[in-house]
């Protein structure tokens, strides 16, 4: 140790002892671990020693002896005492005896480094028991007062003196934790050495075991021992490595979680050998045995550079290439030989199997007199010819036991009885045939056969019952097993719990497939279809249907027709819908395996009957799906008309499930068949269009909207097949190239299909094919035109004109019809693409609508603007694409329509229909507000009036923010318009705001504006304004805010009624009275407080009755009844208690009071007495 360093063991336990130590400056000793050179006599553990005993030499009161003290004592002994040799073993023994463990450990380490290992120290430190609780007390522990049995602080270290941290130690002697760390480090090193030794032993054992198993495998490779833990860990490591290398990360994580093993380190496997090759390399080398690492030796040889010739490397490369070529040729030759041998063996196997089958069919049972001869043959020493395997249609009878050579008798049956397959069903034991005798060891006894038989009779065996007969014989082959199962299953099934009967399905199916008797097969299939009383979806689909399909694949079309279909026919009218559902789904699942004649006749008729007669929605839905499968496999063109009728029948079904199934499954399948027949454009689509036209002719006074929806939805489902026909019959189909980089199809290119069968990629074949066709389709339309493209020309020249003509004939006020045709044209344009829409669809609509400047001021010849063509074109064609130019075109079209209709004084129904359809989608609210603002600032008062009325339609769907920011300012602007007609036109929109908006600020602004209309003197004689306000109050009053109704509507209605009493003009008076009557009728359904009833509602009714007495006596009778009813309510104080409102129609329990009331009003032609009874309460 260098000068100035501190010996870690030179520490004192007390201050007194520290004062007795030499000065720190004197440093004459060196630690043995320093390795410094010096004379041998200076070594404290040199062979020089004095005559003092070893205990005197090493005794100390310190916890660990001071090396310095030892060194001084050794020097003193070397200088003046008699020379005595002290052995190293004695020093080790003294250190261990006095419990100087750390000193002994350092001593042991020094000896190990010098190559002189001491057995005593090695054994001591190798024994963990020496470091547990000690029964003895070391001297140091006695001095410190630890007492008997104190724990020994483990302190073993493999560190040298230089590597220790001296800052850990203090002069108080408390070093237990540091000593424990040192001992634990030493134990860890010993444990690692033990593990390495165990691994070496394990490797040796594994290698020897592997060699032994390889020998066994060569001798008998069919025997496979269970995997051993060591093999399992090694394979787990390789499998995890394979998963990680091939990017199966989730699988690797799951695999690692399921195995308690460290996959990061090969040493964790437990083998002290290098890691083997990965799984891929092992698989590639599986044909050749890998050499064991113990059997190979790396040998290196060298050659002087001068000994090599100039062309040595080239010759070596050519030689290697030649050798490899020869090896490859030899291997290819061997492979060809093996293939020839394999083919030859396969032919022999087939030949032998055919011979076995023919022998089984032609073999006949031996005559009775040959039984003894057969037995003699079996007992003779002559070797028998090779016997056939045990699967030869025989039964092994175990009902009795006898000598092999005993003749078969009734009391002593033969050892082996065989039933003939041709008579099994009737006489299973009547006829026997030779199978070979089983020989048993016979005791060396002389018992008589009778005594032996009597003795065996005490074994309780009985074959009298059915079950006993089955148990007493064991089937020898598959046919015998099938016969046994066919007899036993009918008795097993009724005794199995319903919840567990599905476990019998595989057994029933296998038996039904392989059983030789048709009657038994029919019984088994009957059991299968009746196995579960009401099979749920999982049992029906996943088990029974799957089993039926597997049965069909196995037995072929003939047996399906003869065995499975009768079972379906029996269940077609079953009382449980689950059974009928099973039949409907089975017909579709079995369709691919049926004969085509049966598929298009019997099965089609069964499904047609179920579709027409079954009352369960889910059954009819399954029938539709099965019919679709039939349509996918049918090839009889004569069945087209039947399929079309089935489609119409399903479309008219009242169940939404059935209609959804017809669109998702049946129509795509039927369209695919009609496409193959060439009837899609010539027959199917024209037939639907003809039915729509016929419907329009019949519905001039009332259109059947349900049927129109039915036919139009079918046409909409035919759009994808129609587009596929256009693509596949285009002039560019021969130029389709699927090689190279084909760009993907945009996600929004096509509308979302209702099912995979309506996906164009599925119809065409693949997304790559569809993408390639679309590229050529767009290029053809844009640059080359449609010449020679018959399928597309049919769409342009026949389909589109006919559809536009039909649209012009529908009722524009029918929101449903407008919506249906809008969605149809939207799907048509989105499917055929933007180029087609811009170049083929829009021009045809624009030609019909003719929105040019010279036609703005006159509607002559332009009545089409009032038809449904306007909303369909606006919402179905112009909204297909949402780019800026498309939106601008839509805005311009709506502005032109609004201007044209306004200036021409034409009905606004077509414009209203457009706003209603577009307003249903919030995306178009800003656009519609832009159109209306164009009308607000228009120079024509007619256009401004139209804009004001359109706000009424838009307010209901627009959010309150837009109402506050865009709608109300525009209405306020119009309410101050110079033209009184414009101001009046804003009243319905203000009323709608009061009905729908909840913001108080907006409501107050609208209320103030309406109040100005009613209270401003300039409007006192505005008859049309008063009419509009009363009409608006009657419309929005029941739904408006109650406070607005009570504080504003009812008082102003009362005032208007009073003013109308003094109206001089009868026409105006009757107009106002009629509007007041309708308003009061609507408000009578609302809750009205007693105060309002007395102050406003009843007085207003009395004023109105005064007008009606002179102008309309029929109304006067009804008003009188209403007044009496209201007065009675006030008198009885029943408001807000039992009934909660002063509803004039309180007698109409469970019905819409207003509707019922107005319907009663329509009966004004009856007598006054009957009218008076309208408002009488039911007793």
Brief summary:
This protein is mainly alpha-helical. The protein has 49 helices and two strands.
Describe this structure as you would to a colleague:
Helix 16 (478-492) packs across helix 18. The model is unreliable at 1-83, 133-174, 289-296, 364-435, 853-861, 1138-1151 and 1163-1179 (pLDDT under 50). The protein starts with 14 loop residues before the first helix and ends in a 7-residue tail after the last helix. It is mainly alpha-helical and 1179 residues long. The radius of gyration is 53 Å and the shape is extended. Strands 1-2 form a two-stranded antiparallel ribbon. It has 49 helices and two strands. 29% of the residues are buried.
Give the helix level as a range of percent. 55-70%
Number of strands: 2
Distance between the first and last residues' Cα: 123 Å
From the alpha-carbon coordinates, what is the Rg to the nearest angstrom? 53 Å
Number of helices: 49
Main beta-sheet strand count, sense and barrel state: 2 strands, antiparallel
Task: Indicate the proportion of strand residues.
Answer: under 5%
- CA-based shape: extended
Unreliable spans are 1-83, 133-174, 289-296, 364-435, 853-861, 1138-1151, 1163-1179
Structural class: mainly alpha
Mean model confidence by pLDDT: 74
Organism: Coregonus suidteri
Keywords: Coiled coil, Endosome, Golgi apparatus, Lipid transport, Repeat, Transport
Region (Disordered): 1-49, 123-156, 202-221, 360-433
Biased composition (Polar residues): 127-137, 412-428
